[in-house]
Amino acid sequence: DAGITQSPRYKITETGRQVTLMCHQTWSHSYMFWYRQDLGHGLRLIYYSAAADITDKGEVPDGYVVSRSKTENFPLTLESATRSQTSVYFCASRLGPPSTGQYFGPGTRLTVT
Amino acid sequence: SQQGEEDPQALSIQEGENATMNCSYKTSINNLQWYRQNSGRGLVHLILIRSNEREKHSGRLRVTLDTSKKSSSLLITASRAADTASYFCATAIYNQGGKLIFGQGTELSVKP
Question: Taking the CB of the first residue and of the last residue of chain A, which one, N or C, has fewer CB atoms within 10 A?
């Protein structure tokens, strides 16, 4: 019963490099979400997906790209990392209607030098 | 933009005491949810209250919602050291895919 996993858990990269954060869930939940958590800003939604091949922007999408070719995976790519993208990234999933809660992964701590 | 504002930002109590956290929000919502985050971990869903509900209980948790004041409170009764964590409220608006907008959280410390 793995639930929702994220990899890597920790990543250090340099400015300008491309980085992909992985998210995998074993529940076949329809909805998946990416958030970033920063001191002073709480959690902010980057992108979300209602189903495979359906994605939409959240509050802070600039500099990020997502894809969802399979229901269980929702990778987040930073095309050219910047220092301002240093953060803790959380993936979450939800079974169906928004009348239920979300399940969060353990997070990826990303540092951009 | 943050939807939820939480108060207090930090709260320190002794084991056995009750802890109350408040959340205010700006726009109409369909439901409000509370999450817990232990240090270095992901968020855990605690309880959801719908906009047509005024109060909800789950174990030692009691949540109230006042849509006229756009506010909610989370009460943890008989707190334990294991309740030490950050607590976040989050609001959901269904016609926006049920996206959650989070407050900045209350950091609760329960001293044994």
Answer: N
